[in-house]
Amino acid sequence: MLSERRLQVLRAIVQDYVGTEEPVGSKALTERHSLGVSPATVRNDMAALEDEGYIAQPHTSAGRIPTDKGYRLFVDKLAGVKPMTAPERRAIQNFLEGAVDLDDVVARTVRLLAQLTRQVAVVQYPSLTRSTVRHVELLSLAPARVMLVLITDTGRVEQRMVDCPAPFGEGSLADLRARLNSRVAGRRFTDVPRLVEDLPEGFDVEDRGTVSTVLSTLLETLVEENEERLMIGGTANLTRFPHDFPLTIRPVLEALEEQVVLLKLLGEAGDSGMTVRIGHENAYEGLNSTSVVSVGYGSGGEAVAKLGVVGPTRMDYPGTMGAVRAVARYVGQILAES
Question: DSSP secondary structure string, 129-147?
Fold first, then answer.
């Protein structure tokens, strides 16, 4: 275990390096921070931190910079999440509340996160498998054609056309709509097949084929694998950090184009807690020079998706974590109220 003083020295090194982009020396540390010890003592502490792998010397006779291990300790033990100010919270709320539908919510969230953190923002669409049915609407377009509209608790709307095997009257359609919603409204998607399996039996024989066709379309909508969708924004922010990607930024850009990679980075949506992966903790080699800060969001206690940011390991972790958490909380509130 590091002594409290050496932890203070590490914290100061991280803060200074993040703020200045310059390797940090012992003289600068004693001038900028009230460490209560001499530069010689700070040099000894820095030598110990270097031996332990928390800081490194990038060039001969240069100062020190944090390693992935140093950032990890900083995030785990030394960095509190920086709270958003009241004006910042109001700005977030006002910006997101103007959204007109789920696509707009996600687009605004990506834009907002990228602006707040000056990093690359990634937002996952709510997962259908973790959603509940808010309402099923059935609209008659022709005697034997129906539009099925599925609305989820996260504000997602799916529309499907249903060609019925026989004409279906308005009265029968209203009856089906009422019975269907009485069974599935407020229920998890995974429960719906069991809840509707015997529904056709309650209708006249001549209507059962149409009822079965409508239900088949509904169930296909529930299980379609188009749910793992992402929106990304702020990629140009990476060009602000040329010193953090000294060789080339290309591997990072290539990784950001791979949706599977980004989904793995965000992690399982069921985990609503804050996750920070630093440097080589990212399994994808192209992102070894970056850190990923992510958190779950949802309209209830369980996360339905993840959002987060990708940036260089030299990032303002307290500020970034605070922004990501605040935005996730407001997105969850908007989904709950939509």
Answer: GG-BEEEEEEEEEETTEEE
Q: Which of 4, 48, 3, 46 has its CA nearest to residue 25?
A: 46
Predicted TM-score (pTM) of this structure: 0.78
Where do we find the tokens 């192209």?
A: 286
Q: Give the dihedral sign, CA 96/101/107/109.
A: positive
CA pair distance 321, 313, nearest whole angstrom: 13
Are 26 and 10 in contact by the 8 Å Cβ rule? The answer is no
Is the Cβ–Cβ distance between 92 and 83 less than 8 Å?
A: no
Phi and psi at residue 24, to the nearest 5°: -105, 130
Q: For residue 203, what are its two tokens? A: 């209708």
pLDDT tens for 262-294 read 888 887 545 668 889 999 998 888 888 899 999
What distance in Å separates the CA atoms of residue 28 and residue 275, rounded to the nearest whole number?
A: 32
Q: For 221, what's the count of Cα atoms within 13 Å in the CB-facing half-sphere?
A: 23
Strand, coil or helix: what is 84?
A: coil
Q: DSSP letter for 289, please.
A: T
CA distance 91 to 189: 34
Q: Residue 100: CB partners within 8 Å, gap ≥ 6? A: none
Tens digits of residue pLDDT in 78-137: 777 888 888 888 888 888 888 878 888 899 999 999 999 999 999 998 876 667 888 999
